[in-house]
Amino acid sequence: MTTRRVTAGQNVCRTSGLDGGGLVRPSFQDVTALRTAQVGSGWLEASSCGGGEGAVMHCPFCRHPDSRVVDSREADEGQAIRRRRSCPECGRRFTTVETAVLAVVKRSGVTEPFSREKVISGVRRACQGRAVDDDALNLLAQQVEDTVRAAGSPEIPSHEVGLAILGPLRELDEVAYLRFASVYRSFSSAEDFEREIEALRAHRAVGTSG
C-alpha cells in the first residue's frame, strides 16, 4: 500500500481504500482545501477547508462524485477524525482519516509539515550509547507533538519544537538532554555545560522534594 501527501492548506484527508470485504486498495492522501487532486486510484474534492461532512469525496473504487458519511469518530487521541463512507453508486465502503496539518517555520522562512520522524531522528543522535529504546523515543515524539499542537497555531517556529523536546528528554535521560541542549542552545564553553548541569541538579532536587 502506498500513500502520497500534498502539503497545502491546513487539513489532510487520508483514504484507506479498505472495502467491506476486506480488500486493500491503493490509498491516498490529499489536502481538503478548495482544490481537487488525483492521487493513486481515487479522487478527493473538498468543498471547504474543513472538509468533513460537507466535503465531496469521490469513491476510490468507481470514482462516483459523491459519498455518504455513515459514521464519524475521533481517532489518535482526538488528533484526527475517522469517517466511514458509503458510495451510493457501487455500494462499497471506505474510510477517511482527517487530521490538521501542523507546519514548522524554519529559520529561513521555509515551512514544512511537522514530522515525528524528524524529532525522533534528532533525539536518537543525542541518545547514542544510552539505554533509550524506540518505544521511549516514540513516546517522546508524541509528547512533543501534543505540546506544539496545544499552542493552537497552524504554524510554529522550529525553535519552539526544540524547546518542546527539552522537557521530556530531560526526564528521559540527562546525558542525552545535555547533548541535545548543547546543540540547541549553542554551548560554546565548559561554563555553558556547568550552568546547565547546575540547572539539572536544581530541577532534580525540586522533583525529589516534591
Automatic annotation (TrEMBL):
Cytoplasm is among the record's keywords: no
One annotated GO molecular function: DNA binding
Cofactor note: Binds 1 zinc ion.
Chain ranges of the ATP-cone domain: 102-192
Obligatory cofactor(s): Zn(2+)
Keyword list, A-Z: ATP-binding, DNA-binding, Metal-binding, Nucleotide-binding, Repressor, Transcription, Transcription regulation, Zinc, Zinc-finger
PANTHER family for the chain: TRANSCRIPTIONAL REPRESSOR NRDR (PTHR30455)
Role this protein plays: Negatively regulates transcription of bacterial ribonucleotide reductase nrd genes and operons by binding to NrdR-boxes.
Family: Belongs to the NrdR family.
Protein name per the record: Transcriptional repressor NrdR
Organism: uncultured Mycobacterium sp
